[in-house]
Amino acid sequence: MNDVICTVDVILLTIKDGALHVALLKRDRDPYKDVLALPGGFVHVREDADAQAAALRVLKEKTGIDAPYLGQLATFSGPVRDPRGWSMSIAHYALVSHDVIAGAGHPDVALRSVDQLMNLPFDHQAIIDTAVARLRSKSQYSSLPCYLAGDTFTLPQLQRIYEALMGEPLNKVSFRRKMTEMGMLEAVEGQMEVGGAHRPAQLYRLKPALRAQLALLSRGL
Predict the structure, then answer these.
(1) In terms of CB atoms within 10 Å, which of 50, 66, 84, 211 comes out highest?
(2) Which pTM value belongs to this model?
(3) Going from the N-terminus, what domains does the chain have, and what CATH number goes with each?
(4) Distance CA 173, CA 93 (A)
């Protein structure tokens, strides 16, 4: 019996120019050498404690990024998804602000809009579609979109991220009321965003207790 190919793939999502994008890399080996694909790699049985650890390692090695949120998505498997043989990929999705990707400065990371069809190898298009559907279904006023905003953000910035995920404009008053009712944000004392034609805006962040709780959930604990 042939060995099963066991890998992890990471769907790294961010907001760029008001739209949801995914990070891709050119593959450095066959099959599909030089073709854009999701960051992925083999599970190292002597090094990785579990699939989550493998995904975090692969993401760091391939992009230089430590994701503040990384959750397991699903397992994709079968005899035809990889020309090398019967394979399974344990896919994870990560959420970061665009500043994090820009700050990592990886020259080979390419951002592509998730709403545009991409000629991707393996079943990576289906994996991306599944991740985007999961994120959008969870973003009905949950706290996950905060990870796309960065460590601190203004309420208008956060509202634009929710609008990009939901695909529709949101009423400003209703949005702010909902954020208050959910009690997931705290004002960063003494910090305002200044610049531009608008008056200074208060900076907010996800409450530390909620951030810690989500980190545990993302790791299945």
Answers:
(1) 211
(2) 0.91
(3) 5-138 (3.90.79.10), 146-216 (1.10.10.10)
(4) 31
